[in-house]
């Protein structure tokens, strides 16, 4: 009953018009920023490793890894394999398209989060709820996003991650799914009760290490099947446009699954990446906007593509046609998702490939649940008038621990994925509207950043000069640290 209801709601949330609106908004932002994702690629990489943390905020790199911990999760492993299984190899092309234009979307939302962030209880807080209220003046609209984000991050989305962990551990080690749930919940409690700094510290260690290891495994599998390279690329592009003999009638399905799984993975436009972006200690909002734009590239072009290539290079996948029958059936009896990737790795590393993926998936999915908690905490902080009250945060922790455990014991993996898609979709709907209304301030911030760069300065944000009202933190709170003062193009003068 619950599964049918969830599927009915999800079909409305992710109807075809929504898919094309996502593509259209990303393309519009790309054009309006003059394709910053190409022009500023070198600057993005440089900024990832610039800046220091403070008592109130985290460093650019920590914010980058916190955002990646939300982006790099089960969607990168199970989700991409699922996209191939339901949308065909062509879904990968549209996932790439979504990442390319989505990086501009990520820039807009993350820049807005920095512009309108606040300092509360000694910590930086920001995200869609904050920039909706301050940027549009529509507090009711901001409250809607905060409530939607709490529902998505606490109830709908954690189960997708924990379910994938439990399924992978059960498949690889024969571990009881309830025991997996207890293990995940215990470790999660240990971290989320430790505060934002502990979350940032875990993310900056785990994410780079596991992502690099996963990419290296993928590269090795590709090298052992290198003769398949031309055929795989040809198949992806032919399938994407419906000109392949096998996947000829699946062009629309490929677009839908590529966009949906692309957004689920890279989260561009969903608003989730904007929350850790606001926590960064930077001198100009555009700096963190560019950093988060680059995180979309890392998520999709490196991690997601690694999964896609492992599955396609080894041929370890099935594809369901529009009618529900298999048009490719290489793995009889195997459910779409994680097991495709497990089979691909096992084909090259027989005997322990499946276990290796299960461990990798655990770290990816676990850090994503941590990121979900941080986002939920930020929105709870926005909603609670009494900022000194401890009980709302305590209840929040209990709820996300409960939904995480439920995900490990739910028997229908499809239900967990449907609920996760609902969570992504409802946040996306609200945040896309907000970004369209507030895109102009983000474009002004980018123009201000580029203007100062041309003058030889390390850009420092002044909202009055940029013509952006209600940026209270930057108007009243920001002071550039003395050790960050830089020489301008004119000798003898310091940038204040």
Number of strands: 4
Instruction: State Rg.
Output: 22 Å
Q: Which spans of ≥5 residues are poorly predicted at pLDDT below 50? A: 482-496
Oligomer: single chain
Q: Report helical residue fraction.
A: over 70%
What structural category arises from helix and sheet content? mainly alpha
Strand order of the largest sheet: 1-2
Write the element-wise H/E pattern from the N-terminal end onward. Answer: HHHHHHHEEHHHHHHHHHEEHHHHHH
Specify the CATH class: Mainly Alpha
CATH topology type: Amino acid/polyamine transporter I
The end-to-end distance, rounded to whole angstroms, is: 62 Å
Give the tally of structural domains. Answer: 1
What CATH architecture would you give? Answer: Up-down Bundle
Write down the overall mean pLDDT: 87
Instruction: Tally the helices.
Output: 22
Largest sheet: 2 strands, antiparallel
Instruction: Indicate the proportion of strand residues.
Output: under 5%
Could you name the CATH homologous superfamily? Amino acid/polyamine transporter I
Question: Which of globular, elongated, flat, extended, rod-shaped describes the shape?
Answer: globular
């Amino acid at each position: 009953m619950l599964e049918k209801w969830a599927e009915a709601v999800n079909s409305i949330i992710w109807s075809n018009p929504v898919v094309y609106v996502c593509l259209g908004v990303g393309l519009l932002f790309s054009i309006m920023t003059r394709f910053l994702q190409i022009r500023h690629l070198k600057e993005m990489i440089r900024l990832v490793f610039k800046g220091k943390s403070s008592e109130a905020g985290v460093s650019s790199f920590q914010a980058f890894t916190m955002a990646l911990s939300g982006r790099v999760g089960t969607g990168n492993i199970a989700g991409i394999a699922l996209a191939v299984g339901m949308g065909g190899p062509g879904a990968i092309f549209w996932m790439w398209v979504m990442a390319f234009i989505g990086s501009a979307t990520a820039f807009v939302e993350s820049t807005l989060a920095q512009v309108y962030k606040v300092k509360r209880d000694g910590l930086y807080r920001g995200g869609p709820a904050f920039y909706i209220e301050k940027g549009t003046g529509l507090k009711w609209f901001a409250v809607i996003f905060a409530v939607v984000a709490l529902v998505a991050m606490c109830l709908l989305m954690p189960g997708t991650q924990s379910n994938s962990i439990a399924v992978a551990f059960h498949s690889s080690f024969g571990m009881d799914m309830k025991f997996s749930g207890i293990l995940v919940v215990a470790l999660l409690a240990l971290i989320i009760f430790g505060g934002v700094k502990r979350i940032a510290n875990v993310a900056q260690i785990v994410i780079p290490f596991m992502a690099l290891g996963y990419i290296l495994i993928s590269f090795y599998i590709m090298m052992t099947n290198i003769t398949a390279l031309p055929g795989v690329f040809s198949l992806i592009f032919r399938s994407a446009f419906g000109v392949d003999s096998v996947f000829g009638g699946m062009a629309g399905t490929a677009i839908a699954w590529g966009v949906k799984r692309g957004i689920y993975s890279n989260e561009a436009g969903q608003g989730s990446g904007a929350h850790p972006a606001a926590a960064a200690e930077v001198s100009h909002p555009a700096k963190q906007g560019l950093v988060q734009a680059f995180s979309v590239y890392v998520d999709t072009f490196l991690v997601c593509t690694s999964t896609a290539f492992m599955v396609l290079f080894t041929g370890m996948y099935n594809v369901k046609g529009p009618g529900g029958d298999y048009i490719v059936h290489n793995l009889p009896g195997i459910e779409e998702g994680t097991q495709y990737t497990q089979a691909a790795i096992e084909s090259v590393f027989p005997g322990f490939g499946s276990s290796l993926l299960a461990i990798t998936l655990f770290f990816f999915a676990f850090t994503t649940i941590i990121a979900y908690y941080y986002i939920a905490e930020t929105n709870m902080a926005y909603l609670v008038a009494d900022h000194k009250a401890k009980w709302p945060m305590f209840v929040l922790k209990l709820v996300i621990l409960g939904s995480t455990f439920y995900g490990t014991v739910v028997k229908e993996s499809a239900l967990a994925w449907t609920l996760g898609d609902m969570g992504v979709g409802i946040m996306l709907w609200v945040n896309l509207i907000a970004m369209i209304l507030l895109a102009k301030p983000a474009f002004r911030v980018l123009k201000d950043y580029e203007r100062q760069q041309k003058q030889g300065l390390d850009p420092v944000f002044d909202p009055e000069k940029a013509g952006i009202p209600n940026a209270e933190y930057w108007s009243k709170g920001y002071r550039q640290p003395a050790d960050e003062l830089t020489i301008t193009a004119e000798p003898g003068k310091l940038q204040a």
